[in-house]
Amino acid sequence: MALETPQIAPRENTTRYGRFLLPVCLILSGLLAYHFSSWAYQRFYRRSDSSGQKSEGTLLVISPRKIDLGTLRPGARKQESIQVTNQGRDAVQVSDIHIGCDCVEFHLPSNTLGPGEATQAQLIADFSSDPDFKGSLAVEVNGRTPSGESAFAVTVYVNVFQDAS
Fold first, then answer.
1. Architecture of the domain spanning 61-160
2. What is the DSSP string of 102-140?
3. Where are the domains of the chain?
4. 96 CB contacts (<8 Å, ≥6 apart)?
5. CA 49 to mean position of chain CA atoms
6. Which residue, 121, 149, 136, 115, is CA-closest to 65?
7. pTM score of the predicted model
8. Quick check: helix, strand or coil at residue 15?
């Protein structure tokens, strides 16, 4: 008496669209992740244009909002004045300033601006501590209030190359 091995028939696709389900889910989850990240960027990190308009989520107006320091020689230093204005109805205190690079300094004459008050802040790009640095930078400068609200944001652009004029 011989034992027969049962033959297993290949399983047929039980759902008509089964092989398309995984790619569709991956595409939809990618689109969802993109839209969420875009929303988060707009909500928390959006900056206005260089016209000096107050960006959504900041308390102070910086003019200009984007500062192009041009091209500097390695080891050089450049200073720029920018206007900071409180167009709100309440005083704004800046307790913390975060700068994305040690080569940039930001100095406010006063940490508190009253309603309607304006002041000139000093922005300094100093490459003397790293005279071998060459390249292009976009440095974010962000001020925060004691409660953690965004007081201001400004972007500084600078190129450091040997053949600077």
1. Sandwich (2.60)
2. TTEEEE-S-SEE-TT-EEEEEEEEE-TT-TT--EEEEEE
3. 16-45, 61-160
4. 143, 144
5. 13
6. 121
7. 0.63
8. coil
Give helix then strand counts, H and E, for the chain: 1, 10
Point out which residues pair with 79 in neighbouring strands. Answer: 124
What distance in Å separates the CA atoms of residue 151 and residue 61, rounded to the nearest whole number? Answer: 9
The confidence score (pLDDT) of residue 40 equals 62
Taking residues 32-43, report their average pLDDT.
66
Cα separation values, 39 from 24, 27, 42, Å: 22, 18, 5
Question: What whole-number distance in Å separates Cα of residue 42 and Cα of residue 35?
Answer: 10
Percent of the chain with pLDDT over 90: 53
